[in-house]
UniProtKB/TrEMBL annotation:
Residues 41-158 form the FAD-binding PCMH-type domain. GO terms for molecular function: FAD binding. This is FAD-binding PCMH-type domain-containing protein. PROSITE patterns: FAD_PCMH. InterPro entries: FAD-bd_PCMH (IPR016166), FAD-linked_OxidoTrans_Type4 (IPR051914), Oxid_FAD_bind_N (IPR006094). Coiled coil: none annotated. It comes from the Bacteria.
Length: 158
């Protein structure tokens, strides 16, 4: 198993400096908010990055490769298997700030959205545009479209 060194104060500062004003970090105080999901598991992150754009995510991943620290994406935190928890330490990357529905192309049934859009909002936007969004996970009022994609959440089998 690959081992990682704890994030030093210097490395946390490098991570923070690499972010644009759209994004921010959570260090110490509110980390516990990001230490659990809908499972019974719990792992405290060393740092949380609240991403406000995808360029900042790219910068973070580049730093993670350079300095060898883990990054765990987190959407709505409604997962039942602890997937968004930093079991190996490092950074939790919250996508909840990527919450824009950018475009709906009704002719081609395409919606361009940020990874952090709550799935129910996707359904509502589709309905408002005269379309139907078929996936129906029961936690769609909490989960994000990115989390649904990552976990293949679609709803209960008929
Ligand atoms: C009341 C309730 C009902 C539920 N009903 C269903 C159901 O009907 N069907 C079903 O399948 N599941 C269901 N779930 C489980 C859960 O809602 C789904 O797994 C959902 O897809 C998780 O989305 P999330 O945004 O909360 O992801 P999180 O819990 O934050 O993360 C889940 C996983 O996805 C990864 N991830 C999240 N966002 C991204 C991203 N942008 N890019 C890459 N990886 C990402 C995380 O690292 C983690 O591994 C339910 C949960 C609850 C609490």
């Amino acid at each position: 198993m690959v081992s990682y060194s704890p994030l030093t104060a210097e490395l946390k500062a490098i991570i923070a400096d690499g972010l644009s004003p759209d994004s921010s970090i959570v260090d110490r105080g509110n980390l516990v908010e990001y230490s659990s999901d809908a499972s019974t598991l719990s792992y405290l992150p060393e740092l949380v990055v609240l991403a406000g754009n995808t360029d900042d995510i790219k910068s973070l991943i580049e730093l993670a490769n350079r300095y060898n620290f883990p990054v765990t994406p987190r959407g709505g935190g409604s997962g039942l298997a602890g997937g968004c928890l930093p079991s190996r330490g490092g950074v939790v990357l919250s996508t909840m700030g990527l919450d824009r529905i950018e475009r709906i192309d009704t002719g081609n049934f395409i919606m361009k959205v940020g990874a952090g859009v709550i799935s129910l909002k996707v359904r509502e936007a589709a309905e408002a545009a005269g379309l139907f969004y078929p996936p129906d996970p029961a936690g769609m009022d909490q989960s994000t479209i990115g989390g649904n994609g990552a976990t293949d959440a679609g709803g209960h089998p008929a």
